[in-house]
Write a structure and sequence with these properties.
Layout (H helix, E strand, L loop, with lengths): L2 E6 L14 E2 L2 E2 H12 L4 E6 L2 H9 L4 E4 L11 H16 L4 E5 L8 H12 L5 E7 L9 E3 L5 E3 L17 E11 H6 L9 E4 L11 H13 L4
Parallel strand pairs: 1-4, 1-6, 4-5, 7-11
Antiparallel strand pairs: 2-3, 6-10, 7-10, 8-9
Helix pairs in contact: 1-4
């Protein structure tokens, strides 16, 4: 079975300037995802897609096996990620042939470990799922303490139950998507317009490995967690 790792890392970032190359404990942020991919020993190829020549060069220096020049229209602040992943897959397949499984690692999720990647793939392999996403137990529940405001300013629960629950723990289990690992069977990725299909599964990761860097505060929190060794 041929498995491709994709890592999409654009040059621009509103929250943290040039974050994919910013050093964290002496390594550029993108290096963590590449090193985790290598450590997992799952991949035939590790492909990094970026609009930045510097990111592409840095990725090769840290273990990526192939780099893809990401089109400018797929690298803006408003561009969705799925087209960039598909473009990366198609470009890599032109060089190395067809892959069976695609695993995308988000460059801004450095706290994952290789075992998370392996576990998520095991979930896909043990089910008939088209794809697997990762998440962590949600802080808020739409059945208990997550609310919506209507056009008149009236606030109600997002998803009220027929029988009111007194504790969040008694409501249906909900997860925060942690933007860490996405896995697809190849055709499911290339043929479905949406991330979610009728068979999408979720692999649960602990909160301490689920932080996605989107701000300076996130960056500082990750640095602190790494310094404390609190991500294993």
């Amino acid at each position: 079975m041929k498995i491709l790792c994709t890592i999409c890392a654009r040059a621009g970032s509103k929250g943290v300037a040039n974050k994919n190359l910013r050093l964290i404990k002496g390594l550029p942020l993108i290096a963590y995802s590449i090193h985790q991919a290598v450590e997992s020993k799952l991949f035939s190829q590790i492909a990094v897609s970026s609009d930045s020549p510097e990111i592409r060069a840095t990725s090769l220096a840290h273990g990526a096996t192939f780099v893809v020049d990401r089109p400018i229209e797929m690298a803006s602040d408003t561009a969705p990620k799925l087209p960039a992943i598909r473009h990366c897959v198609e470009a890599t397949e032109k060089e190395f042939g067809r892959f069976d499984i695609i695993i995308d690692l988000d460059a801004t999720a450095p706290l994952r470990i290789a075992a998370d990647i392996v576990g998520a793939l095991d979930l896909l392999s043990s089910t008939n799922a088209d794809n697997v996403i990762t998440g962590t137990p949600a802080h808020r529940s739409p059945y208990f303490n997550l609310v919506e405001e209507d056009e008149n300013g009236v606030v109600q629960l997002s998803k009220p139950l027929k029988i009111e629950v007194a504790r969040r723990q008694d409501s249906p289990k909900c997860f925060d998507m942690n933007a860490s690992i996405y896995i697809w069977r190849r055709d499911a990725l290339l043929n479905n317009p949406s991330l979610f299909t009728s068979s999408t599964r979720l692999f649960e990761m602990p909160r301490e490995r689920s932080l996605d860097i989107d701000s300076q505060a996130d960056f500082e929190m990750v640095e602190w967690m790494m310094s404390k060794g609190s991500t294993k």
